[in-house]
Structures are given as structure tokens and as C-alpha cells.
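Researcher: Here's my situation. A collaborator sent me these components and asked whether they could plausibly form a single complex. I don't have experimental data yet, so a predicted model of the whole assembly would be a useful starting point for our discussion.
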Amino acid sequence: MRPDLQHLFRMEKLPHIWCPGCGHGIITRAIAEAINESGIDLDKTVIVSGIGCSSRAPGYMNFDTLHTLHGRALAFATGVKLANPELNVFVITGDGDATAIGGNHFIHAARRNIDLTVILFNNNIYGMTGGQYSPLTPTGKMAATSPYGNPENNFDVAALAIAAGASFVARGTAFHDKLLVNSIKEGIKNKGFSLIEALSMCPTSYGRRNKMGSAADMIKHLKDNAVNVVTAQKLPPEKLEGKFLIGTLHYKPYREFTEEYDKLIARVQKEGK
Amino acid sequence: MADKPLDIDQKSCKGCGICYSLCPKKAITGDIRGKVVLSAPDLCSRCGICESHCPDYAIFVRREKK
């Protein structure tokens, strides 16, 4: 561990419980680096998570952290932010946590454009409970609950967040860690709902079933199939087939919920006198 | 030769093999259990790709102070 990041971790809790080769450790370090570089007040930073492999991350981080119910991280975070709008509230959530059981909270937090920085660890599977398919498992992929291949269509969570009203949407991967750090920093700066989808890898529950090789092969898969959104504009559509875009996908700041709510309180208090 | 370029925490390493598969100079390799060892310290350019891609925070690159 780099000495300049050690104060952001609960060093006595490490090493973590994630499997060998799990991408979540890389993304957690990227979050710590982004918080360190953005210079926000660490005593006014809260990290909220739900349930799942990804949601173990706040347990290792030396902030005020909340480990909440499955899928309800965004609901708790909305409460924390509204009760005390000066806090920097981060939400660490997984693909199943955010889009399946917490799908409703997810679209409504994005619709309100409340000032939260959400980092969605997308490993394409429910890793902790044994590899059931999630709404982000690509069609045709094997999982414990789809032994003949996933028959369902999967969400594009970035497009979902943009359509629901998020003001900042970016995507990074466990391989592109510098880009991920920069995306999280931009998400912290953005006053509104910021979603950073961080593509991770799960060699144990996902890679093994889908014959994707070792953790090293899976991180190379992320490297080879990612296309930066700026580069993608110059490429013909046939070259983008089977690839995914990384970088800032959407940035359009507009009215933020906690500010509007404070305005409402001020107005009602004035009228009540 | 100057002091070693990397500190490796063998206790934290889980042997996933990400670091030595990404190393551009092949300065680190896996031992018999797959855990990382600094096999060729002279080749290491201190780029930090192993440090930033270690999921278990087992590698620290010693950078020269400016």
C-alpha cells in the first residue's frame, strides 16, 4: 500500500476478503486516490453501501461509513444528504444491488439529481451468493441460475442513468485506473447525481463459468474491449462491435435536489411568518 | 546498484498473477504458488502498473524523491 493512501484505509482490517484476482480492490484504491487528490474534507465524507461483494469496500475505508440493506444504499444516502447537505456522500454499490433489488431507488435518485457520487462496481454477476445472473449479466452468459446461458436482455446502466436524469455519467474499468480516478474526481466536483460505472472482474463466479481464463486474462479482456468515447467518435460502427465505451459519457448539470429543497424550506418559513 | 525498486508484502499477496502479466519489463514473476517475486530488479522501470493494479495492495513502488 502506498504510504500516502494509508490514512484512508482501516489498515487493521486488511487484507480484504475478496477472492484472488477480484477487481474490486483496484477500484477501491482508485476511489481512495480520487478522494485524496480532490482534497475534500475527510471528516465530512460519508460512504454508504448496500449488500454484496462491492459493498464490503466501505468496511476497509477510514471514513464515516454505512453498510445498509440490500439495494437500499441510495435510499440511506438520500437521507444522509438531505439531513446534512454539506456532507460529501459516496455510494458504493454493485450491479445486482443497484439495478435489481435497488433498481427503483436508482432511477429515482437519478431523477431527483441529488448530489451523490455513486460508484457502481459492475462484475456482471452476484458474486457473494454464488454466481446468480444479475440485470447486467450479458445475454447468453453462463451463471449459476442460467446453466444454458442467460436468456434475458441486460441493462446498459449508463444509458439507464442518463435517461433517468443523472447529470454526470462515466465509465471506467479495473484496468483503466487513471481514467477511473479522473472520472471519480469529476463526479465529486459535479453538483448532482454522478454515476461512475466501474467494470470489475469476477474470476471465481463469472470468469470460471464463462471460460474467460485467469484474473490476468480477464483484466486483458477489459483492456482490449474498451474504447475511449473520444476515439469512438472517429471510428466506423463495425469497429465498435462487441466493444464498450469508457470515459465521460454524459455531463449536463442542472437543478440539484438538496439546493432546491433548501430554497423550498426558506420560502415556506418566510411565508409562515 | 541502488536499493530495490519494489516492496512486496508476501502476506497480502493472494497470487492472482495480474501484476506480473501486466509488467512491461518482466521484472517480476510468480513463484511456485503464483505469488509475486521481484526476479529482475535491474529491469524494473518503476512505472507503477503493478502497484496500481494489485487488488490486494501488496506492492509498493519506491519512487525517488524529487
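Model: Some features of this prediction you could bring to your collaborator: The first helix of chain A runs from residue 24 to 38. The two ends of chain A are 57 Å apart (CA to CA).
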